[in-house]
């Protein structure tokens, strides 16, 4: 039986509010990992070159679990995927704390994999918010949920500041236990989410696609993925999202350790991460409106420009101010680049295809990030912070070429 639009979006306000709160709580997972992962790794790793490996494993977990999370969401509903993800969030807190107490680098890396699984599910909140509202409000709902990360930007670093020395001599062990407790709270919030359209209502489809055939449900039907991923818009969206997230992760992985190597304090590093995460998510309160006004592609280009500016500022010095300004610009650039690219993905699929397409998008993006994360630590230890910054201009140049080609293709199509 078809649902009317009124019934379909009955819980829109409650769902978006819960997803925003959960984003705020669950975002502390990634913040804690980025603030402490390379430092704990440096203390536990058998070799300094492996210091950033835990964060790289975290990203691998994001990539490896994106597709399974999409399968769970499509078969059992988004809420089931949410609760499975928060279960991983609680597990990472317990395993990471135990790894620090035992001094086990392997166990800490295992914990980071589960942390990545949790983060992969958390990033699907943005698409879930878009499912909760009418089409004309999707970009705004998506960016608003991302804005919930502003609180995560405060919560995560403060968890580190207030708990890192509570369990002496096991620095950061109590921090991860606190992070696990926050994941439990996020699970309680998510248990009340009611996402519309899961395998209950027939998916609306163009008349040309359904003539003479029965309507297909959200859980079945849709075009083959090989057709979807060949769309020029999808390729552009994925490439821009991948570069935005790759560079954010590439620089963020190295920054806390680079600050310590430059003689700066842990508190300065924590505050830098805090302002970085706030800058990542604060624009979410208005990014959706900007996208609606000027278009997603212009927003993406602005974001990539800000990331390039962040790297340029970082090259001018290694004082606290240089790191902080770099991290703030990096966060702003990530928001515009990643949220804009996510909005483009919404234009690439039909309703019955959304779970598959969104999970494939995230799988490609996070798989790319994992490569950059592995490279970041090696470059930092071998050649220093400035080399990490210089290398970041390479993917920026590549994405500029992709955007230029896409714009030229559009102009050619319009002329024809």
Automatic annotation (TrEMBL):
Keyword terms, alphabetized: Membrane, Transmembrane, Transmembrane helix
Source species, domain of life: Bacteria
Major facilitator superfamily (MFS) profile domain segment(s): 15-412
Ranges annotated as spanning the membrane: 51-73, 80-99, 105-129, 141-160, 172-190, 233-253, 273-292, 299-318, 324-348, 360-383, 389-408
PROSITE patterns xref list: MFS
Organism: Pandoraea thiooxydans
PANTHER family listed in its UniProt record: MAJOR FACILITATOR SUPERFAMILY PROTEIN, MFS PERMEASE
Gene Ontology molecular function terms on file: transmembrane transporter activity
Pfam family, one: MFS_1
Protein's UniProt keywords contain Isomerase: no
Repressor found in the keyword field: no
The protein's name in its UniProt record: MFS transporter
InterPro entries named among the record's database cross-references: MFS, MFS_dom, MFS_trans_sf
